[in-house]
Amino acid sequence: MKDKEKSDHEFEGLPSGIALSWGLGKQPQRGPKRELNIDQIVEAAVEIADKEGLATLSMSRLASSLGFTPMSLYRYIPSKDDLLLLMQEKVSDIDYPNEEVDADWREKIRQYVRMTIKVFQDHPWFSDIPITSVPLTPNQLKWVDMALRTTRNLPLNDYEKMAIVLLISGYARWCGIIMKDMTMAMQTGKRPGEISGLDYTAALKKLVTQDRYPDLYPVLMSGAYTEEYKEKNTVGDDFDFGLERILDGIEHYLLSKTKEE
């Protein structure tokens, strides 16, 4: 088998959207007189989703914004699922952060989590697309590489490193979704006190009884549940607090491995 034929055979099993993300898809031989390209289509789709939400995005809506027919788009991108994948790939094209020589692994993980959260905040539709596989596209794999870089100098095997990547990526995704939802609630006119529940503290203190909610009751009465008395907050930002506890857990695991050796 010739090298070219062997190479083509190796890529045969890739789904169309994955292949397109790697530049393996073929441009259509026939198309509209005024040429389109995949980047142009994806950029337009991202712009619509950013402004109007993913629910408003259809191939017809996208084609209209570009001045073409839906069939014209399908010559370049075979399906809407492929389009969504390429949209995620597009907004994941972020440069590696400047690596600080003195930054320890904990700070590198904090940096990675902040970068991940920002994607969800900048593109609220990102989390509306279900996860269907491990990352397989170039920019998504770059994110995995960035996450693995935080473990580069740690005494862990490859399976442990990947487990930590899943842990911190999952936490970043959860934080990003919650923050995105809160931001969108604010944009629709909700007051901060409605989101935190502070506006309803008095009512909750009447409704939540000790016999029905034995563990929630004292927390609610202390003001911690709705942040009634912010000056009494001993943990600071909840998301940062959670991340620090995850980092503590990883550090404890590293110490236990050192003792075993």
Structural commentary:
The protein has two domains: 3-91, Arc Repressor Mutant, subunit A (Orthogonal Bundle); 105-190 and 229-260, Tetracycline Repressor, domain 2. The protein has helices spanning 3-10, 16-21, 38-52, 59-66, 70-74, 80-91, 105-122, 138-149, 158-187, 192-196, 201-207, 216-222, 238-260. The protein has 13 helices and no strands. Helix 3 (38-52) packs across helix 6 (80-91). The chain is mostly helical and 261 residues long. It is flat. One of its GO terms (molecular function) is DNA-binding transcription factor activity. Residues 58-77 bind DNA.
Question: Into which percentage range does the β-strand content fall?
Answer: under 5%
Radius of gyration: 24 Å
Q: What characterizes the major β-sheet?
A: none
Shape: flat
User: What's the count of strands?
Assistant: 0
In the predicted model, the low-confidence regions spanning at least 5 consecutive residues are: none
CATH architecture of the largest domain: Orthogonal Bundle
Q: Number of helical runs?
A: 13
Oligomer: single chain
Organism: Lederbergia citri
Keywords: DNA-binding, Transcription, Transcription regulation
Domain HTH tetR-type: 35-95
Protein name: TetR/AcrR family transcriptional regulator
Please describe the topology of this protein.
Blueprint: H1 3-10, H2 16-21, H3 38-52, H4 59-66, H5 70-74, H6 80-91, H7 105-122, H8 138-149, H9 158-187, H10 192-196, H11 201-207, H12 216-222, H13 238-260
Helix pairs in contact: 3-4, 3-6, 7-9, 9-13
